[in-house]
User: Fold this.
Amino acid sequence: MNIDYRNIIPELKVSVSTAKKEIMVNLRYPLWVIFWAIMPIFWLAPFIFQGHALVGGRFSEFFEELAGSGDFVTFAIIGSSLYAYVMSALWGMGLSLRREQWGGTLEAILISPCNKFSVLFGKALSDSILTSFYAIVQFALASMFFGATVRLENIFYVVLVVLLMILALYGIGFVLSGVILMYKEPGALLNFVDTLIYTICPVNYPLKALMLFLGGAGYYIVMVSIFFPLTPTLEILRTLLLPSFKPYINIALAASYLIVATIVFLTIGMLLFNFVEKKIREKGGIEAY
Amino acid sequence: MWLSYELKVVTTVVKKELVLYFRYPVWVLFDALMPLLWVLSLVIYGMALVGSSYSNNLARLTNTGDYISFTVVGMIVSSFAYSTLWGMSYALRGEQWSGTLESTFLTPCSRFSILLGKALSSMLTTSVWVIVQITLVTLLLGLRINFINLPLALLFFLISLPSFIGIGFSLAGIVLDFKEHSAFVNFLSSLLGLLLPISYPLNILPPFLRYFSYALPPTYAIEGMRSLLVMGCSLSELIGLIIPLVFFDFFWLIAGVTIYLVEERKVLKNGTLGYY
Amino acid sequence: MQDYSIITKEISKAYRKGEGGFPFKRKSQKTIVALDNVNLSIGRGELFGLLGPNGAGKTTLIKILSTLIIPDAGTALVNGYDVLKEPGKVRASIGVVSSGERSLYWKLTARENLEYFARLYKVPDEVAKRRIRELLSLIGLEDRADDLVEKYSSGMRQKLSLVRAILHDPEILLLDEPTLGLDPGFSKSIRSFIREELNKKQGKTILLTTHYMEEADQMCDRVAFINKGRIVAVDTPERLKTMIGKKEVLKVVVEELGDSVLNVVKTLPFLEDYRVTGMEQSSRKTVRMYMKNVDAHIQEIVESFSKAGCRIISLSVEKPTLEDVFINLTGEALGDEY
Assistant:
């Protein structure tokens, strides 16, 4: 792939206009926007109710031992709000090329002279803006319903870390979108990956819980989990937001990993993308579903 | 004669659905693994909260502190309920996608036989995975289930089944017409996930939500089967659950058939039966 | 009264097309008339063709007759049963094949598909087994009976759909564009199977829709022209072709400059009628000119085109086809290109 650096500004304009278009299209369906802003509350609430049933309040002593903070409600609200980005990377970015394939416009996009990365980047941009909106709404609603205690003095760093995570996550979404093109039933794969991430990342429970209750297997699961951008991000964010949170992994290391992950995933994504494009040229089409 | 023909249609549909199911190995794997992951995350969460497999607070609320058995039975019953509720509409939607819905509807058999066949086949596959899950969970996490009550629990499930099938009919009808199926399923199952007492007892829910739970037949099925399997209650203690269930059975069967027929007629008028 | 298999009584149908749907987007609706007061009577044992361009209402009529669509007004009797009052009996009397290849389960084998549908059609198991074997060998698919349908070519799938439609030995067949998109070899064998085996030998009543005029011409006992939801004419292909009078047709394909073709054609006094067709952006146009005594005028026509700067690509004298009749009656062409 040759990137002509003189073209960066015009290409960015392509991205921005793509993003604008996507957001406009989304806003045309206001009920969908409301739907996606509210749905995650339904997924979070059962965990909070379960917690209440098991410990009879919003504070668990054992949870405090594991995580440094016993307020499992705020813990879960932070986890599930951030999870919105994972969903968007998987189901939005991950399926984006596949949707074009279904719609029959994939080849046109791949063969078009404009830089496809600008188009994809624009899509990522609009997705992340919308998802940030959903995440904030979700956090606000959940705090209203269930109550959340957070420190807000580090909000600048919070935003910074979330931005880093978005880059790394959408890098993964980018890789996934290429993989999914060659995969027959993306629905099953995405569902599985989605649930797997939800289980092995510290969305509702601390990493230490995985270690404690799954024994030796738990150790390996945690080792896998910390390479997924959501895990280091959650560790950093909870350190910043929860008053007495004790992270399981080193925060500085986690932050540097996010930067490395962004570069690695974006590179793999581009290589894969070029590979797919080459395949189309060679075969005159990709094997579709 | 008529009945034996329609019954044959039901078994034929079941057989075909099962053959098709196993020709999509990815989905088979997915069905086998997903519920395990869900159980796992609920159990780990519980462990993180109370530090053991016993919760004093749950014992105070329900008679049992063994929240692993509590939750696993809740999940199993709800997955049976879901497979009946969604089995039919998913299959109809699938046939709209593959284009076979019209050729199926061209046959002179009753649509309800076809729908029932689809519900039964999805319940059968669910049973297989439930047995696998129970075995695994028992081995890994220690499940304490009152197996003597198993026949009673099955009986209880049979009592609740007609209402599930009735709801399934109505959902199938709605899906024929309302093409945004995945959003619809997503919304309803998320709502059910909150309202059904799967991983917590009903009295944890805020009162206004509890009223909605009481309107849902699966709530009674979960409560009843859990009482039998986890708390070791006898059937006579559950009369308060059985009476509303029988009422729901009649109500939903009639409502389900009606809603389905109304929706089908609408689709036949719009000419959108095969659309997706 | 003659013995009719299918009688339609003043069938009308209109669709309201809306974008999006409640509750996600406001609907913008417009009404499209698919069928307008259609009356047809198809005799027992007849092979009847419904000929018309895409969107003329052919599929809607087939779907109404097969109980998959409820008409807005009117009704139909199929094998003596009312499609609105006794849909179950209608379904048992008919076999339906639609164009496209999506009416079978691709993840099942041919035999599994047929066994499944046989049961839904109430065919006893032993009879079904025998018929499946016989029909598959009749249509030449016996070697592939246990292959998954996804491995079939589209022509083979269409043949299999045809077998599925006749499994229960229905008296009436409704075939919606049965050869659409198939290669000529497959189309030919499917047509002869329909005509020779199903219609002549087995005596089935067949209603077939098509927008290929040769198909209608070669196969059908009678043909109805349908355009914009209305039946324009019904008769045997021979008699329909005489409707145009004793004219001959000169077909000229030219490379045109601007609007020159039209200008040329307008000035020719001996033409009784003409049609110019061709892609909008393309400069290549096909002109069909109807006149008496073609031989006497060819020279003049060629000269007029050259004078106007048009390059003649081909030129042929033809007998009037059903399409010519159709064009004469409706002012519209049947197919995508002509």
Notes: Chain B has one domain: 2-270. Residues 2-270 of chain B form one domain.
